Amino acid sequence: VAWHQATGRDNLLRAAERFADCVAAHIGKGGDREPGYPGHEIAEMALLRLYEETGEKRFLEQSRYFVSQRGEAPHYFLKETNREREKQGKAPLGEEEAERLFAYYQAHVPVKKQREAVGHAVRAMYLYSGMADMARLDRDGEMLESCRALWRSTVREKMYITGGVGGTHIGESFSRPFDLPNDTAYSETCAAVGLVFFARRMLQLSPESAYGDVMERALNTVLSGMAMDGQSFFYVNPLEVVPSALKTDKRLEHVKGVRQKWFGCACCPPNVARLLTSISQYALTVRENAVYVHLYMDMDASLTLGGSPLRLKVTGDWMHGGLHMTVETDKEGAEGRIAVRLPGWCLSPKCTSSIGEGTVEKGYAVFTGRWHTGDTLDLSIPLVPRLMQADARVAEDADRAAVQYGPFVMCAEEADNGKDLALLRLDAQKPAFSVGEVEIGGCTLPCVSVHGRKTVPRQSDELYTDYAPLTEEETTVRLVPYFAWGNRGEGEMRVWLRT
Predict the structure, then answer these.
(1) 144-187 pLDDT, tens digit each
(2) Residues 432 and 450: beta-carbon distance below 8 Å
(3) DSSP symbol at 93
(4) Which of 174, 210, 214, 341 is the most buried (most CB within 10 A)?
(5) For strand 376-380 and strand 322-329, is the pairing parallel, antiparallel, or unpaired?
(6) pLDDT tens column, 268-307
(7) Which amino acids are annotated catalytic?
């Protein structure tokens, strides 16, 4: 589908259609077909993209079958598993055991009854994305309510501040609500890519800035998944690293302190590539009479608004506070709405337009009217460092703070602060920030410095001694964007710091 959209050539599109028809001939309802559905979801999204590109309803119907049959009785995965167990001379799987096992595949209950994000995090994000597409295409309110519940479960209970999801390496899965360990985090790069997929589809259903905020937040982890030179990659994206622990602790053997050249399971590098090379499709949502700007980047987009051609050019340096947008149309103009996301990380966002006053709707500055060549929009989004705290139920982050600068989640690295980052403390009552720049991997990136203290380790022959106040030294803690960590050699890293 992507090849057809990019080049207009249909050779790969026709191959995709043949593959989809082969699947439908062997898997589905009726005749001698196997009543199955994917173990690793993504065919649902692919079939729907194929349907929207070709208009062939058989692809929509096959995807609808995969989505609607998941978790329904008779349970396909239970039948499949018991068939294998019988071959091995084992007793059938019990119902309770089966429900726990199949939660890994998001097949424990029918999708319209699912309310908590569970199981393998990448599979979950792909399924939820397909469900959101299905809710939009079928105008299915029940499916939409399930998507909204799963979204809330994901972002309000199971998402790292970096936008990563998947708290445990056991099954590469979601853990229980608010269980978000930093050093053993799995937070697979592909899962963050999947969250971007999900957010984009929720924006297509309902343009709400909260979805755009999460899509932007998840890019912290997506970008962390690749080195600045594009030559090495992370599969797992922890929020806390001590290299000596990685080398000796088997509980951390899934975590790497430096990016790897490749993986035996090489899903993450091409997933990052396809997202970054198609990022413009995530920056905008175009409806018949409205254009929504979600992400901030230079662009020159040719669109249709209210049935008329419109060209939207976006320029400016938003990292230093703003964007400028200009419109080009034919002489009749284009009638409709242009809406710009007001980011949740900005305390005082402001958007103005040459066509007059706008309104704020669900976190978007909305301007409605007839647009002509030369009309403009200006977005002011000053970036200010902020101390962030986690929900008190996230035990790992109690009495800790993280620094966020605009959309960038920041982290402390050994390269700037020396070893023993666990001994650093930030002054949460009166944080004194200064903003500067740092060169990492050939790029100029923002850095934030903040006043803090560092505990002086007490020397003793005993592991435990009577309590006495610790001695501390004044220090300045320097923080860099999380996505750029690990580009200056191996060393400690920490997102959440003591206060």
Answers:
(1) 999 999 999 999 999 999 999 999 999 999 999 999 999 999 99
(2) yes
(3) P
(4) 341
(5) antiparallel
(6) 999 999 999 999 999 999 988 999 999 999 999 999 999 9
(7) 172, 267
